[in-house]
Amino acid sequence: MPSSLPAFAAVVVAAGSGSRSGGAKQWRGLGGKPVVRWSVEALLQAGAEDVVVVISPGSEAEADSALNGLAGWRLASGGATRADSVRNGLNALGGPGDRPVLIHDAARPLLSAAVIGRTLEALSDADGALPALPVADSLRRGVEGRLAEPVDRESLWRAQTPQAFRLSTIRDAYAAWPEGEAATDEATVVQRAGGRVRIVEGDARLLKLTYPEDFAMAEALVPRRTRIGQGFDAHRWGPGSSVWLCGVEIPHDQTLIGHSDADAGLHALTDAILGAMGDGDIGDHFPPTDPQWKGASSDRFLIHAVERLHARGGRLVNVDVTLICERPKVKPHRQAMRERLAELLSLPLDAVSVKATTTEAMGFTGRGEGLAAQAVASVELPA
């Protein structure tokens, strides 16, 4: 935020029931963190000195969990309507009457510093400001399911939040609002009281989460960065009648020796995914000294790594595993391995590669002492 902007406070309205979205959307995850946290973080990072989060009574535990680790916010109880919730949030704020206040809906999580800055700057010559986007679609009015006359979209705007006002301006405007009449938003309240409200450039990414399908759209808009991880594992051969490789059991005159099922392919891939996240290695999560993992299926280790990736809002893009051995022959089983990995990782088959190579009789794999595997995983994490 430009240093010339004044200090400001904010009210984040997060008291809705989310009936149209299938539940209280403010506590749902988006890009690895709760929806409400996106807005509160953006406001604090932009310089908000006081953020009041308005929640429905009884939601304190959810709010504390969602905002854990952030400083500079506090809670207020919501009311029967959105307008009542805003009033409660404003009443919780202190400071002088000319203090700039942003009022924002938690259901618009992808708030940028640029929108915050533009909205606050507009208060220099106006009583209020709201970000908005011009209507681009052709509009039609319908009557009983039939097309009626078109609607002129000239001068029509899609209003967004945060909306900005001086503290005394918005408080006085609400005090003058007719009892029993529903207020569309704060800009309407201030305008009704005679205030001048400016429109500033909004942001198409600042969509409102209203319906379940809106979450898929928002996930697609979350800024992400690509990360690459690599893993390596090796196990020695020992007596046995089969070997597990990439989740597939292959008949063989030996088996790989390890604390778990010694699936070197899955172990290397697990380390690759953990490495892409900077989340340690397989030994940190499943110590070989812990007896509970003796003989364990390595599927569990791989699924654990993927679950940790998803918990951070990440997603797996593709994986590539190379098995290094003289025997057994991998090619006859390669398709089954790819299919098993695709199933475990919920990836399309063309995002899963399994290859095999030898070391031309050199080294421990060439002498038949053991088998090695290396893997690479590409992931996307919220930026």
Task: Give the overall average pLDDT.
Answer: 94
What CATH architecture of the largest domain do you see? Alpha-Beta Complex
Shape: elongated
The number of E-state strands comes to 19
User: Helix/strand/pairing class, anyone?
Assistant: alpha/beta
- Count of folded domains: 2
Percentage of residues in strands? 25-35%
Topology:
Blueprint: E1 8-14, E2 29-30, E3 33-34, H1 35-45, E4 48-55, H2 60-66, E5 73-77, H3 82-92, E6 100-105, H4 113-121, E7 128-134, E8 139-143, E9 146-151, E10 157-159, E11 163-166, H5 167-176, H6 186-192, E12 197-201, H7 212-221, E13 224-239, E14 242-245, E15 248-251, E16 254-256, H8 264-277, H9 282-285, H10 299-311, E17 315-324, H11 334-345, E18 352-357, H12 363-366, E19 370-382
Parallel strand pairs: 1-4, 1-6, 4-5, 7-12, 17-18
Antiparallel strand pairs: 2-3, 6-11, 7-10, 7-11, 8-9, 13-16, 13-19, 14-15, 17-19
Helix pairs in contact: 5-6, 8-10
Explain how this protein is built.
It is a single chain. The chain is an alpha/beta fold and 383 residues long. It folds into two domains: 8-221, Spore Coat Polysaccharide Biosynthesis Protein SpsA, Chain A, CATH 3.90.550; 224-382, 2-Layer Sandwich (60s Ribosomal Protein L30, Chain: A). It has twelve helices and 19 strands. Strands 1, 4, 5, 6, 7, 10, 11 and 12 form an eight-stranded mixed sheet that branches. β4, α2 (60-66) and β5 form a beta-alpha-beta unit. α8 (264-277) packs parallel to α10 (299-311). The two termini are 19 Å apart. The model has no long low-confidence stretch (mean pLDDT 94).
